[in-house]
Amino acid sequence: MENKEKIRVVVILSGGVDSTTLLYDVINKGYEVFVLSFDYGQKHKKELQEARKTCDILKIFHKIVNLDVLNELAPSALTRDNIDVPEGHYEDVNMKVTVVPNRNMALLSLTISYAIGIKATKVFYGAHAGDHNCYPDCRKEFVDAMKEVALLCDWSPIELEASYINMDKGDIVILGKELNVDYSKTWTCYVGRKKACGKCGACQERLEAFKKAGVEDPIEYEEE
């Protein structure tokens, strides 16, 4: 039987529901875990604060990487003050303005470099089925291609794992309930105010997920 306690891995942690659940999941499997988060100028920078809190609670090494250059090169409603975050359901076509072009390839590439540097053998990231319609770099085809690249980009092959690629956010919260994930230390809203707006696609998907899972969402939302 494989002794996972000696297997070093890296988890990409945004501070949202999916990646936080993934972190708990990977820790529960007995890996030696290192965590990377990325500051790419996102309006919802509060997610990084929550990621830090989660890692402090779990006593896991956490590094936040400054990636402002992505904001300079790839305009998106998530990063630019002159582009509003749209309201409406996650699958609505207007949510495409929240795409940060090629973000996940950039994040994965840097994480793979980090993994090679610390002699880790796996990288985990939290793409899930609900992202497929909106975000091209969360599709299974993209993940499969990046898995091949991760094995070939260096003399030290890295296994890329997207454990939730066929799960929706509701199923992820159901799993998180079993793992005792502290969802009060997560952030999802794209707007970037003190409380979650409850109206953007990310908020609506989160609310639907907690409802499906029969779990109370512990974060605060703005009143109507």
Structural overview:
- The chain has one domain: HUPs (Rossmann fold, 3-Layer(aba) Sandwich), CATH 3.40.50.
- Helix content is 37%, strand content 11%.
- It is built from 7 helices and 5 strands, in the order E-H-E-H-E-H-H-E-H-E-H-H.
- It has a 5-stranded parallel β-sheet, with helices on both faces.
- Helix 5 links the parallel strand 4 and strand 5.
Number of domains: 1
The major β-sheet equals: 5 strands, parallel
- Rg over alpha carbons: 17 Å
Strand content: 5-15%
Number of strands: 5
H-E string: EHEHEHHEHEHH
Average pLDDT for all residues: 89
Question: Which segments are poorly predicted (pLDDT under 50) over 5 or more consecutive residues?
Answer: none
What name goes with the CATH superfamily?
HUPs
Strand arrangement across the biggest beta sheet? 3-2-1-4-5
Class derived from helix and strand content: alpha/beta
Shape: globular
Helix count, DSSP H or I runs of 4 or more residues: 7
According to CATH, what is the topology? Rossmann fold
Helix content: 25-40%
Regarding CATH, which class?
Alpha Beta
From the N-terminal CA to the C-terminal CA, the straight-line distance is: 54 Å
Give short descriptive properties of this protein:
globular, five-stranded parallel β-sheet, single chain, 224 residues, Rossmann fold, alpha/beta
Topology of helices and strands:
Blueprint: E1 8-12, H1 17-28, E2 32-39, H2 46-58, E3 61-66, H3 68-73, H4 103-117, E4 122-124, H5 140-152, E5 159-161, H6 169-179, H7 201-213
Parallel strand pairs: 1-2, 1-4, 2-3, 4-5
